[in-house]
TrEMBL record:
All residue ranges annotated as the 4Fe-4S Mo/W bis-MGD-type domain in the record: 17-73
Organism: Mycolicibacterium sediminis
Listed GO CC annotations: membrane
InterPro entries: Asp_de-COase-like_dom_sf, MoPterin_dinucl-bd_dom, Mopterin_OxRdtase, Mopterin_OxRdtase_4Fe-4S_dom, Prok_molybdopt-oxidoreductase
Alphabetical keyword list: 4Fe-4S, Iron, Iron-sulfur, Metal-binding, Oxidoreductase
Record bears the keyword Iron-sulfur: yes
Name by which UniProt lists this protein: Dehydrogenase
The organism's taxonomic lineage, starting at the top: Bacteria, Bacillati, Actinomycetota, Actinomycetes, Mycobacteriales
Database matches in SMART domains: Molybdop_Fe4S4
GO MF entry, a single one: oxidoreductase activity
Top-level taxonomic group: Bacteria
Pfam families according to UniProt: Molybdop_Fe4S4, Molybdopterin, Molydop_binding
Keyword Iron in annotation: yes
TM region positions: none
Disordered: annotated segments: 342-366
Length: 754
């Protein structure tokens, strides 16, 4: 503080301010921030140079923490629908309304008649990780939906089928690799995803500086592509074919070297056979990439001392999402770079189970049940987000009667939000846990707003399984909760209490203590657990007193791979130890741990899972498809985050706009100048045009998360520059069949002058 304003009483603002550390929850990079706080308000945020993981990195969103935290449009009290209007209510009134409304549906139709949609921020909160599952379990519903089927579900399926563990993320070791191929990701803007990397841009620059090579495969010349040694621009949706041609080349040119993996992999011959008819020449026309370019990708990956392919949204939310996501790991295996420094590695989360002796597992299955209307298979206990509307609106036995949305805005983020919005109007009861009155929550009967991030504790339960360096960090709330205001764990606990039949006003600590008792009973009974044979009651006594979520975190950390195992390893991790090291603890670079990970029936990497191999037939028939017409892809912006950050003055305006990007030559041929009409399988839109030669010809791009012009929404700044909802072009019928994930990239569209 160099120029603190002088207050009326003569003291400077600096005297009132203090700083607090807070891990940023706004993207997967998990940067440590230093917040400057004045009378309970966050007035500044900067990167924490001492943070063991992020070392001072911050992006525009993190720097806008204060604006986001203090947004005047954030709800500070619950809203309850009375006579058709959403009006403010006390917390007690709101919880009573939930008990009445949800209670009636559960009583009349059962918990399984309630659908739950969990959105992206759940991956960034303690509440999302530890309490949302309790609500779902309390309902006993099989109608669970989430942003995963608009995002990474193909990766879960391919990991599950290949390694037996759908959560065993393979993360590129960017700090040590010699050669990185980024396919369908734009980490310079997204700051990384399913790879928790603070300062991804800096790490890519460092890679090049140490003589490494960066190749980007993306139909758009993104900021990441601009930084690369080489950029390949394929036709959208064709990555799986391109990667199969890379695999083909590895076999064809005798470049396959399993190295240390040799004894741990089965199915290599099947993969060779699958790739047989995907010679570079066979896919070149379909992918729009010359055969030699594809061969070079394979040769370079094989030749580098270490190399890794990293794929994200562009390989995932596409027609062949699971096949493409699988092939990313297949290539890493075939070049000997899985589970090896500089390759694709498995992080070790501090809240994962302590390693058990290697043993074959039961493998990973999908389709244990199917959606009622379209018969979509369950995947990781979820149904496709694209199928939510039909489950709500189709009458009959098993129809969803109520909906709970938690940190999600599916009306903008999922295909055909207009239809979903209409369906939400028709349910008997809708509850939203969300800080904003937005396009989705405006349909709710009750909105329960969690406090802003400054008033919430933070631990990255979910993202601890994807960092490029193993670490543990904890932020207690930086600002006290106002009296009477529940935090999000408490909100969700009270809903669980309603579902347990105890009513909303029972002690929320009951929920946590029940989880703790059940978990410790199970652990102490497991002969391979570090607490095997101990008395659960004794372990409960050892947990630090505090809020329920803190006790649960303490339990998880203490039983985890770095834990103190409840005193058995006195130097091990506890929550108290994390609190005592506020800039975090670094557990070092990722280390090989494949045998700890594998839970396939064979106990090996099953490189050719039958259902994925089977889906390649669909890809084979796509190869002969014509390549005419325009295809639509999405894009992200540095100063934005999906649908919910368009309400901050600091992040809006400028180049952060909802425009249709198109190549100038395409625009000229079409006679498109300043505005275009875009027609997709599900609808039509008009958007301002932005000419750019960064896009491959025949490809247009429109970002998602816009369309803030609905009535009854309380996001004043966003409403001033609403943009259009790209997902209205999509009817949601096009899915990756193995994962139920919506096709959001590579949608056929027609473009004309507006
Ligand atoms: N066309 C197209 N569509 C896409 C994508 C794309 O690339 N193209 N991307 C997809 C992807 S990757 C994703 S992850 C999804 C995202 O889909 P969603 O998760 O459904 O949407 P978000 O826009 O992230 O909305 C997050 C919601 O959480 C609320 N929120 C923010 N913080 C908190 C909190 O701490 N607690 C609670 N309870 N609520 C909070 C916000 O107000 C907002 O309502 O969108 C998908 N949709
Ligand atoms: N600033 C910012 N950061 C974010 C978000 C945000 O909205 N804004 N969202 C967060 C979320 S929820 C997520 S999931 C991550 C996503 O993180 P990323 O996946 O890194 O981000 P995207 O911008 O979706 O990158 C996808 C890239 O794939 C390209 N692409 C599209 N179709 C294809 C294709 O068929 N093949 C190939 N090879 N490429 C294709 C697109 O041009 C785009 O550059 O970002 C997170 N971080
Ligand atoms: S990169 Fe992500 S985690 Fe880091 S400051 Fe920006 S939004 Fe926050
Ligand atoms: Mo996402």
């Amino acid at each position: 503080m160099t120029s603190a304003p002088v207050a009326a009483n003569g003291s400077t603002a600096a005297e009132h301010t203090h700083t607090a550390l807070r891990i940023c929850p706004f993207c997967e990079a998990t940067c440590g921030l230093v917040l400057t706080i004045d009378a309970g308000t966050v007035i500044a945020a900067r990167g924490d140079r001492d943070d063991v993981f992020s070392a001072g990195f911050v992006c525009p969103k993190g720097a806008s923490f204060g604006e986001l935290d203090g947004d005047p449009d954030r709800l500070t009290a619950p809203l309850v629908r009375r006579d058709g209007e959403l009006v403010e209510a006390t917390w007690d009134e709101a919880f009573q309304s939930v008990a009445d409304g949800l209670g009636a549906v559960v009583r009349d139709h059962g918990g399984p008649s309630v659908a739950v949609y969990a959105g992206n921020p759940n991956a960034h909160t303690i509440a999302g990780a530890l309490y949302v599952p309790l609500v779902i379990k309390g309902l006993g519903t099989r109608m669970t939906f989430s942003a995963s089927t608009l995002d990474q579900m193909p990766k879960h399926v391919s990991l599950g089928m290949t390694f037996g563990n759908p959560l065993a993320f393979t993360v590129p070791d960017v700090d040590r690799t010699d050669h990185l191929v980024v396919i369908g990701a734009n980490p310079l803007v997204s700051n990384g995803s399913l790879a928790t990397v603070a300062d991804f841009p800096g790490k890519l620059k460092a890679l090049r500086k140490r003589g490494g090579r960066l190749v980007v495969i993306d139909p758009a010349r993104t900021r990441t592509a601009d930084l690369a040694d080489h950029h390949i621009a394929p036709r959208p949706g064709t990555d799986a074919a391109l990667l199969l041609a890379v695999v083909h080349t590895l076999f064809d040119e005798d470049l396959v070297t399993l190295g240390a993996l040799a004894d741990h992999v089965v199915g290599v011959d099947e993969v060779r056979a699958v790739a047989d008819d995907f010679a570079p020449e066979a896919v070149a026309g379909y992918c729009g990439v010359p055969p030699d370019e594809i061969r070079t990708v394979a040769r370079e990956l094989a030749a580098a001392p270490s190399s890794v392919v990293y794929g994200r949204m562009g390989t995932s939310t596409v027609e062949f999402g699971t096949v493409g996501s699988w092939l990313v790991d297949v290539v890493n295996v075939l070049t000997g770079n899985l589970d090896s420094p500089g390759g694709a590695m498995f992080p070790q989360s501090p809240v994962s189970a302590a390693p058990r002796p290697p043993k074959p597992g039961r493998g990973f299955r999908t389709g244990r049940w199917h959606s009622r209307v379209s018969g979509h298979p369950e995947v990781l206990s979820e149904l496709p987000a694209s199928a939510l509307a039909e489950e709500l609106e189709t009458p009959g036995e098993g129809q969803a009667r109520a909906v709970i949305t938690i940190a999600g805005n599916p009306v903008l983020s999922a295909p055909d939000g207009d239809r979903l919005g209409h369906a939400l109007e028709g349910v008997d009861f809708m509850l939203s846990i969300d800080p904003y009155l937005n396009e989705t929550t405006r349909h709710a009967d009750v909105i329960l707003p969690p406090p802003p991030p400054s008033q919430s504790a933070h631990f990255d339960v979910a993202l601890s399984s994807t960092p490029v360096r193993n670490n543990a960090r904890y932020s207690p709330p930086a600002v006290d909760l106002p009296p009477g205001r529940p935090d999000e764990p408490e909100i969700l606990s009270r809903i669980a209490l309603i579902l347990y039949g105890l009513g909303p006003f029972a002690d929320p600590a009951l929920v946590d203590e029940q989880v703790i008792a059940a978990t410790l009973a199970k652990e102490t009974a497991d002969p391979d657990s570090p607490v095997a044979g101990r008395d659960p009651a004794e372990l409960v006594e050892l947990l630090a007193p505090g809020r329920g979520y803190e006790r649960r975190l303490d339990m998880m950390l203490r039983m985890g791979p770095y834990g103190d195992w409840f005193g058995a390893r006195p130097d091990g991790l506890t929550l108290q130890r994390l609190k005592d090291t506020p800039h975090g603890i670094d557990f070092g670079a990722l280390r090989p741990r494949l045998t700890e990970i594998l839970r396939t029936p064979s106990g090996k990497v099953e490189l050719a899972p039958p259902s994925i191999v089977e889906d390649v037939a669909r890809l084979r028939s796509a190869l002969t498809r014509g390549a005419d017409g325009f295809v639509l892809i999405g894009r992200r912006h540095l100063r934005s985050n999906n649908s919910w950050m368009h309400n901050l003055p600091a992040l809006s305006g400028g180049t952060n706009r909802c425009t249709l990007q198109i190549h100038p030559a395409d625009a000229a041929e079409l006679g498109v100048t300043d505005r275009a009409r875009i027609k997709g399988p599900g609808g039509e839109l008009e958007a301002p045009v932005e000419l750019t030669d960064a896009l491959r010809r025949g490809v247009v791009s429109l970002p998602h998360g816009w369309g803030h012009d609905a009535a009854g929404v309380r996001q004043t700044v966003a409403a001033g520059h609403p943009g259009v909802n790209v997902n209205q072009l999509n009817d949601g019928t096009s899915l990756d069949p193995l994962s139920g994930t919506a096709v959001l990239n590579g949608i056929p569209v027609q473009i004309s002058p507006a």
